[in-house]
Write a structure and sequence with these properties.
Helices cover about 10% and strands about 40% of the residues. It has about 290 residues and is mostly beta strands. A hairpin with a 2-residue loop joins strand 6 and strand 7. The longest helix has 14 residues. The N terminus is likely disordered.
């Protein structure tokens, strides 16, 4: 376990903070003082943290699930701390794969969320896994597959992997099912760490905690086969506290993996329009397309 912990710390140190240069102050991750307890309460919040979705005039600590289209639901959770202060705002999109297809896209020159949507004809665009800059070009650090073309090298057992084969999406833990290069995959993303292990178990225990808070992007699958995109916007959660929150939530998660976060975290929905801006251009995205 000590070896795994050291590997986690090394990889997270390597992949965090590499892309924060030249980011406007308004896009940088805010910092917050620790609080003793986080709770979701029915107390009203006077000032919205994000543009409410879909209503521009209403915000509540827990919006509940809102149906926007067949197979597409969203939910906003505002976490309330002491003095009725909102310490985190979490946006959750729940997608039924019977109504939507998933694709993974990469190019060496990064694009905005809007440009990715236009280029891929996507209905939804979200940032994907980690990437590195090499000789002025951007590449995924783990294995990624886009339209059958493979990029990068496979992570080890500590990571998770989202796959699409013949139109069927899946999310798995590489310790349980390692990547096999003979798999006929059309699209794939590998990322880490696993926040929820298969069966809804805690994926990132306290022994791996680094106490680093950041904006987060999470890709998850629930017990009913829906896929969830979960974005936290104020930078309150560490990886361990987010793992605890998701495992203990009512989201009924079967498995969840952490994608790239910090300034990379960003989401665009075209109809009805909603956006969580990323702080940087993105070379690597997950797109969702209505069937």
């Amino acid at each position: 376990m000590k070896i795994k912990a050291l590997l986690y710390f090394f990889l997270i140190f390597l992949l965090t903070g590499c892309f924060s240069e030249n980011i406007p102050d308004s896009e940088k991750t805010p910092t917050f003082s620790p609080v003793s307890q986080v709770s979701v309460t029915p107390t009203a919040v006077s000032t919205p943290l994000i543009t409410p979705f879909p209503s521009p005039t209403t915000i509540v600590p827990d919006s509940g699930w809102i149906n926007t289209k067949p197979g597409l639901e969203n939910r906003i959770l505002n976490l309330i701390g002491p003095q009725n202060m909102v310490i985190e705002s979490m946006f959750i999109l729940r997608i039924n794969p019977s109504f939507y297809d998933f694709e993974v896209h990469h190019q060496t020159r990064p694009l905005s969320l809007e440009d990715w949507a236009m280029q891929t004809n996507a209905d939804i665009v979200v940032n994907a896994g980690y990437f590195l800059l090499e000789q002025e070009n951007y590449y995924p650090t783990g294995l990624a597959i886009s339209n059958g073309e493979v990029f990068g090298l496979s992570y080890g057992e500590f990571a998770g992997m989202f796959t699409v084969a013949q139109g069927f999406p899946d999310l798995r833990w590489l310790e349980e099912k390692p990547y096999d290069s003979s798999e006929p995959l059309d699209f794939a993303i590998q990322s880490f760490p696993l926040l929820v292990k298969p069966g809804g178990e805690l994926g990132f225990p306290a022994e791996f905690e680094d106490n680093l808070k950041a904006r987060r992007t999470v890709l998850a699958k629930d017990q009913d086969g829906n896929f969830l995109l979960i974005l936290t916007q104020k930078g309150y959660f560490t990886l361990h506290t987010l793992s605890m929150f998701l495992t203990g939530s009512d989201l009924n998660l079967d498995i969840a993996v952490n994608l790239d976060g910090g300034p990379s975290t960003g989401l665009l929905i075209l109809d009805p329009y909603f956006k969580i801006p990323s702080g940087i251009l993105l070379p690597f995205v997950l797109t969702v397309h209505q069937k």
